[in-house]
Structure formats: structure tokens, C-alpha cells
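pinging the channel bc i need a second pair of eyes. not urgent but kinda urgent?? the chain im working w is below, pasted from the shared doc
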Amino acid sequence: MSETGIHRITNSNCFVTVSGGTPKKSYHQIGAVRRNQNISLANCARKLGLTVQEARNQEQPDSNLTLAQLMAWKKVLDVPMSELVPDDDFIEDPVKNRALLLRVMKTAQQILNTNTNVQVHRMAVTLVDQLIELMPELANVSPWPEVGQSHASRGLGKTAYRHFDSELESLLDSE
């Protein structure tokens, strides 16, 4: 444990111990960065358009700030975001999570449509229902394609119908 009371736990979780109390989740280290740069809290508050008390509350490691608030602190302290929020595990990637859920749903739909075992079918139905509960837009997701291309063959693609500019075509022919 350091002098600031911050415990570093291996799996990228940070906790702050409040005078022997229960650990609280630490979302950022704005206060530590500000103190390391010898910038007064009053100066930061003025630049942020906050009262000193509001700035003090925001710089507490367990305050869950919005992205806009983090960006404002980043600008005031003139540091990269990685200094304020050192582990990217703190910022979830919703696009990645949605993509992973979509893949799980496609697999669940595939199991649901191809498996003849009653017990496995029942589990697949439950899994599909739970995924839809998590993310309703998954309701219309189709299973993985069985074989080959997932799109019907439409003949020639769009590029086959595009025309080159005559100057560009003559330039390409000359090389």
C-alpha cells in the first residue's frame, strides 16, 4: 500500500482504502496527477468553472466522472488520458461488447436451428431469451451461414459496372 492509500490489485482493479474502512473502487487518479504537477486545486477549479468543493469531489478516485468531465480535467492538467485513467479496463468498449454478444447470439441461433437433442434445444432457447433480455436488438439475428457465402450470388459486383475516367484510363495504359 502506498502513502495515498491506493492498493494495486493484479487484475487491473484499483481500490482506495478509506482510513481502515472498506475498499472503494477507484475510477481515475486525477488527484494524484494534480498533486504531482504541483497545481493547486483552486486553480483547477477556476479553469474548470467549478467551486473548489466540486473540484475536490471530482478528483476523488471513487468519483465516477463522465467522459466530458474527464476530458476537461485532461485539458486543465495537460496530460494524456492514459495518465488520468491508466488502465483501459476502466473504460468499457461498448462496440466490442455488442460485437461479442452478436457472435454469441449467432452461435446460439445456430445451435437452436441445427441440434436435435431436446435438452440442448431447451438450453439454446433459454440462452437466446437471455441474450435478447440483455440486448433487445439481437431478436432478429440470424444464425451463422451453413456453407459458403452468406449473401446470395448477384452476378457481377458494383466495381464491374463502374467506368474509368478516360484520362485516367489512358494514363494507366501508358504505364
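so The first helix runs from residue 30 to 36. and The chain has two domains: 6-84, 94-149. — does that match what u expected or am i reading it wrong
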